[in-house]
Amino acid sequence: MSAAPKSADLVTVNIDGKDVAVPKGTNVIEAAKLAGVEIPHYCYHPKLSIVGNCRMCLIEMGMPAVDPATKAPIIDAATGRQKINWIPRPQIGCGTNASPGLHIRTNSPMVKDCREGVTEMLLINHPLDCPICDQAGECKLQEFSTNYGRGYSRFVEQKNVKPKRTSLGPRVTLDDERCILCSRCVRFCKEIAKDDVLGFVDRGSYSTLTCHPGRKLVNNYSLNTVDICPVGALTSTDFRFKMRVWFLKTTPSIDPESSFGANTELWSREGVVYRITPREHNEVNDTWMTDSGRLLYKQILAPERLPVLSITGIETNLEIILKSASRLLQTGQVAIVGSGRSSVEEQFLTKKLADTLKITAHLVSRVGQGDGILITADRNPNVRGALVTGLVSSLPDANDIKKLPSWQQTPAAKGTAATRVTTGGLSALAAEIDAGKVKVVLSMGEDLLAAGLTPAQAAKVSILFLGTHLNPTSEIAKVVIPTLTIFEKNGTFINQQFRLQKFAKAVPGSPHAADDLVMLSQLIAAVGGGTLPSEVNALWPLIAAEVPALAGLSYAKIPATGVVLDGSPWAHLAFVEGETLHFKPAAQPAVATA
Ligand code: SF4
Ligand code: FES
Questions:
Q1: Distance between CA 507 and CA 267 in Å, rounded?
Q2: Distance (Å, rounded) from C-alpha 197 to C-alpha 212?
Q3: Residue 55 alpha carbon, nearest atom of ligand 2
Q4: Which numbered ligand comes closest to the C-alpha of 224?
Q5: Distance 190 CA to ligand 1 centre (A)
């Protein structure tokens, strides 16, 4: 978390007659916000360059008057205070930063008149779509027209007709008549997504947003333009007309696509998730997230979701499953394959199970190309959790990853090119199976075949599979226990910054799925490891007591912005991440590339 600014870094500005201390250089719109004053704006966005083209933020500005020759303050005889030299014309707030003595007026007749004029002009060609527009409930044009508009229009001519329902790319639909030409989407693509694909054609009131000739808005960040479009011009093709936003409740979550750990919000109603959007975190993802991460909610109701508890493909009940699983786990020739997709709490209990069975766990690595923005090369969200909890003490061998033949496709990380992700890390387990030392493998949701076991090796062992979706391993597993997706449970991940971040349950789990923590604690009890808590809040006192890096923490105490842990005990490891937004890897041992 950023430290509070020192008083030396603060400057005093006067906003509507009140002195306010704000950090030096703060944009005037943000300074007013700190003082509880709203300056309406469209084109300004704190994470984008300033263009000053919407004019909605017009205010009055002035500076304390000084004698040009002596620099002595000029005192107003009527008030006894230093005179303010007000600029005679309105100024844009977004184009000015706080400097000592700056005076602004946001509620004068001139400012009111400006806002009414700008609003009237923006509405001239804006269609009356509000009753059917997806932006309703989140539309700045609607809100500012109500709060700062004149309330009527003097425009009697025909409105311009522009392209409607234009597909800018696979995930974004444009209604050009609603566009107020603020250029936020244009700047986002150029400055953040590094994909300069949008621009305006034609002039004046005929100006129209479009893609550059021959281009489409296909980058993996395209849906951020929908988030920042202040009106309903850009909408998510996936979410359009699905649900009114005021019916949805939000639940904080984390993007599980990689170790980046983007903060997200799940929007759900009556047990159904309708969309995922970014949650602002200025030290992790700012206000952005990937398109691929937004569509992950579709996993919840995917047809590949594991349907029932089963033994050798035959549906059974929990009691029989537990008996069968404990019998298998007590054969003395057992291996556990942990997962960097499991939560810290699940990894802690997986470690307890491994300790009870007196074995060490394996971990599946999942490596792809980082995109330098919000996707890292480590496609597991929580490898650091496995290190911190002691589930594993080192990273899977990089050479082990490289040798693996199986590839999985993930959504495009940048442009249209799909990014390949390799999974691996099980060569030691494969050798143990070949040597006849392992006869039973418990997989925490990992596809053992994709991670390096050959079908012949997998056929030599009895597999217990705890996971959410069908995969080649679940299909050959002896015991299958369906579990919960990240959207259906509470937990924590540790991202590449060693930041412990929590996610919360948004919707109830599938009725056929078991909670991973409940299953792990029952398996531990079944093999003689004693009774352990199986709920996140109840488990944390034990975690805090036994995991040195997490001492003194509890699930409830972890703030929304997370807690940065001391990662120095693992600094010697060759983590695969490169530079991304708000992250620069420390100098590390090089990953072998032979
Ligand atoms: S589409 Fe939206 S974000 Fe893009 S210029 Fe128009 S109003 Fe602004
Ligand atoms: S917000 Fe200042 S001109 Fe648009």
A1: 10
A2: 6
A3: 3
A4: 1
A5: 14
Quick check: CB of 54 below 6 Å from ligand 2? yes
For ligand 2, pick from 55, 119, 122 the residue to mutate: most ligand atoms within 8 Å of CB: 55
Query: Could you tell me what percentage of the chain is helix, strand and coil, using 3-state DSSP and rounding each to the nearest 5?
Result: 25, 25, 50
Q: Which atom of ligand 2 is nearest to the CA of 54?
A: 4
d(CA 227, CA 179): 14
**Cα 112 to averaged position of ligand 2 atoms, centre (Å):** 15
Q: How many angstroms is it from 124 CA to the middle of ligand 1?
A: 16
Q: Whose alpha carbon is nearest atom 8 of ligand 1?
A: 182
CA distances from 224 to 196, 279, 281, 510, 577 (A): 14, 12, 15, 30, 23
The verdict on the CB of residue 123 being under 6 Å from ligand 2 is: no
Most distant CA pair in the chain, distance? 97
The single residue listed with the structure tokens 């929590």 is 502
Q: Which ligand is nearest to the CA of 114?
A: 2
* 52 CB within 6 A, ligand 2: yes
Ligand 1 pocket, CB under 6 A:
179-185, 209, 229-231, 233-234
Token look-up 């991202």 returns 495
Quick check: CB of 92 below 6 Å from ligand 2?
A: yes
Tens-of-pLDDT digits for all 594 residues of the chain?
445 556 668 999 999 999 999 999 999 999 999 999 999 999 999 999 999 999 999 999 999 999 999 999 999 998 898 999 999 999 999 999 999 999 999 999 999 999 999 999 999 999 988 999 999 999 999 999 999 999 999 999 999 999 999 999 999 999 999 999 999 999 999 999 999 999 999 999 999 999 999 999 999 999 999 999 999 999 999 999 999 999 999 999 999 999 999 999 999 999 999 999 999 999 999 999 999 999 999 999 999 999 999 999 999 999 999 999 999 999 999 999 999 999 999 999 999 999 999 999 999 999 999 999 999 999 999 999 999 999 999 997 655 654 444 333 344 333 333 456 777 789 999 999 999 999 999 999 999 999 999 999 999 999 999 999 999 999 999 999 999 999 999 999 999 999 999 999 999 998 889 999 999 999 999 999 999 999 999 999 999 999 999 999 999 999 999 999 999 999 999 999 999 999 999 875 554 443
Q: Which helix (H) or strand (E) holds 194?
A: none
Extract the tokens encoding 92. 């844009």
